[in-house]
Amino acid sequence: MTAATLDGDGPAMPVSGSNPDKADLAAWLAVVAGILGALMATLDITIVNSALPTIQGEIGASGTEGTWIATSYLVAEIIIIPLTGWLERVLGLRTLLLTAAILFTTFSILCGLSTTLTMMIIGRAGQGLTGGAMIPTAMTIIATRLPRPQQAIGTALYAVSGVLGPVLGPLAGGWLTENLSWHYAFFINIPVCIALVVLLFIGLPHRKLQLHLIRQADWLGIVGMALALGALTVVLEEGHREQWFDSALMVKLTLLSIVGLAMLTAGQFFSRRPVIRLALLRDRQFASIVMMALVLGVVMYGTNYLIPQFVATIAGYNALQAGQVLMFSALPLVIALPLIPLMTRRLDIRVAVTSGFVILALSCWLETRLSGQSSGSGFVMSQILRGIGMVLTFVFLNQAAIVSVPREYASDASGLYNAARNFGGSLALSAMATLQDERLAFHSSRLAETLGQSSVNLHLYLADLGDLVGEGAALRALAGTVAREALVMTYNDLFLLVAISTMIVAPLALFLKPLPAGPAVAMH
Question: N or C: which end of the chain has fewer CB within 10 A?
Answer without folding.
Answer: N
